[in-house]
Design brief:
The protein is an alpha+beta fold. 35% of the residues lie in helices and 26% in strands. It is built from five helices and five strands. 23% of the residues are buried.
Length: 153
């Protein structure tokens, strides 16, 4: 069996440097350097975020560099004692795409979700984002819903 050319790693409170690298990947992949780079969280904030129970960050590292990342939240349900996992962001650096990195990140999240007793993982994809839609179709069941942004008062 051939070894994978990348390693998958779940981030903890001491991985703020890798988290920062993941933000760089997101900024480049989403063509939004400003949003992912302008007002980065402090090291203390990141330690709390990465050390908490509700946020999950998983990265793919290749040759010492973060080449992909996944940010997710565990949402505790109110109607039953269970939770679900929401993939908030998932990106792979352009030169590293089509190598199974996104699938490997989601596979790692599936292990984390099972260990936490989550009953489902869900993710949104935008119309026209054909690569994301193809990936999620391969891994899950499509559910067409409407999404609304509501501004706070």
């Amino acid at each position: 069996m051939t070894a994978s050319p990348f390693q998958i790693r779940t981030l903890g409170p001491d991985d703020t440097g890798l988290f920062d690298d993941m933000l760089n990947v997101f900024g480049e992949a989403f063509d939004d350097i400003e949003a992912y780079g302008r007002a980065r969280p402090s090291a203390g904030y990141l330690k709390r975020l990465l050390g908490g129970d509700q946020f999950i960050a998983v990265v793919a590292v290749k040759e010492g560099r973060v080449v992909g990342g996944l940010a997710a939240y565990e949402l505790l349900k109110f109607e039953q004692e269970r939770s679900e996992i929401y993939i908030y962001d998932l990106a792979v650096a352009a030169p590293q795409r089509r190598q199974g990195i996104a699938t490997a990140l989601i596979e790692e999240l599936k292990h984390i979700a099972a260990a936490r007793g989550a009953y489902v993982i869900f993710v949104q994809a935008d119309h026209g984002d054909d690569p994301a839609i193809a990936l999620y179709t391969k891994l899950g069941t499509r559910e067409d819903v409407l999404h609304f942004d509501i501004s706070p008062a």
